[in-house]
Amino acid sequence: MSDKNGRQIQLYGRVVLLGEIKAVTGLHIGTSKETMEIGGVDMPIVRNPVNRQPYIPGSSLKGKMRSLWEKLSGVTSNFQIGKSNDVAKQVWIHMCEDSECKVCSLYGTTGDSAKKAPARLMVRDVPLDAVSLPETVVDFTEVKWEAAIDRVTSAATPRQMERVPAGAIFSPMELVFSFYGKEDVARFGDVLTALQLVEDDYLGGQGSRGSGKVEFKQLRLALKSSAKGYDQPLWRPDEEKYTNLASLLEDKTNILGWLRDNLKF
Q1: Half-sphere exposure of 137 (CA within 13 A, CB side)
Q2: Which of 98, 255, 108 is nearest to 186 (CA)?
Q3: Residue 122 φ then ψ, to 5°
Q4: Do the domain assignments include residue 2?
Q5: pLDDT value of residue 264
Q6: Structural domain count of the chain
Q7: Rounded distance between C-alpha atoms, residue 189 and residue 163, angstroms
Q8: Residue 54 gets which letter from DSSP?
Q9: What whole-number distance in Å separates Cα of residue 121 and Cα of residue 64?
Q10: How far apart are CA 149 and CA 41, in angstroms?
Q11: Which among 63, 154, 162, 196 is least buried, having the fewest CB atoms inside 10 angstroms?
């Protein structure tokens, strides 16, 4: 693989972060309604079309991480996705030509941007662990009623929102980070910070009204280094798991040192 100047880009290795995502409050990651049904839910959630179980799309988690990281970095939202003329539907993100950009160098650029930068971070879809929900939960979800109240007449406009109930576990979570240079070690540290931003914020929709609080739990790291034999992953810690994100972040300095020692840039 070569960069825009034709220079070769070398893959030194990848680190895989495995774990699970716990819904601390009801989780709503929405999708469009396929059909109109009498008495149907106004705001359905995204489901696996094969088994009809809810899941967390990798794009939702990665997009939330990127959005919060852009805010923390203070970059401008200067690139429109989709080119819609409807202001209400316009989506703007940050995109630039700077190879050292804290956002673009980590999350990559879109195919229609002027600069093609490789995304270091890949996030896979996270399926529901159906066993984590009690048998009394119908169709893996709950329906939350909300109402907008007219400030003058007190008239209510109710609507139904579908959510995965609090306590649900999504597993396995898998984040894959690629190393193309020694500066990418610090960028992986930024990925861990972005996960903390998500825990402090929310995932999916309706977060300002209580939905979407999540926790990352039972975390493990596996390093696949070209210097050590890519097919022989190194695990940290060897046998145990970080019970939560806080315990992993406490070991962040040691983790980054472990990566530097084993990647051999």
Answers
A1: 20
A2: 255
A3: -125, 135
A4: no
A5: 85
A6: 1
A7: 32
A8: B
A9: 13
A10: 20
A11: 154
What's the rounded Cα separation, in Å, for the pair 156 and 146?
9
Reference 29, options 214, 201, 204, 162; nearest CA is 204
Ranges assigned E (strand) in the chain: 13-23, 55-56, 79-81, 91-93, 121-123, 126-129, 142-149, 156-163, 169-179, 214-225, 234-236, 242-244
Determine, yes or no, domain membership for 3. Answer: no
Supply angle C-alpha 221, 64, 258, rounded to 5: 20
- The string of pLDDT tens digits covering residues 196-230 is 999 999 999 888 888 999 999 999 999 999 887 78
Residue 47 within any structural domain of the chain? yes
Q: Nearest-5° angle of CA 52, CA 56, CA 62? A: 150
* 47 backbone dihedrals φ, ψ, rounded to 5°: -135, 155
The residue type found at 219 is L
Q: How many CA atoms lie within 13 A of 5 on its CB side?
A: 3
CA–CA gap between residue 23 and residue 157 (Å, rounded): 28
Q: Is the pLDDT of residue 182 over 70?
A: yes
Q: What pLDDT shows up at residue 30?
A: 84
Q: What letter represents residue 57's amino acid?
A: P
Dig out the tokens for 73 from the structure: 């970095």
The distance in angstroms from the start CA to the end CA of the chain is 17
Burial 99-128, CB ≥16 within 10 A → b, else e: eebbbbbbbbbeeeeeeebebbbebbbbbb
Residue 32, class by beta-carbon neighbours within 10 Å (0-12 exposed, 13-18 middle, 19+ buried)?
A: exposed
Q: Which residue has the tokens 């094969």?
A: 50
Q: Which amino acid is at 81?
A: I
- Please check whether residue 181 lies inside any domain of the structure: yes
Instruction: State the residue for tokens 């139904």.
Output: 160
Range of the domain at 153: 13-263
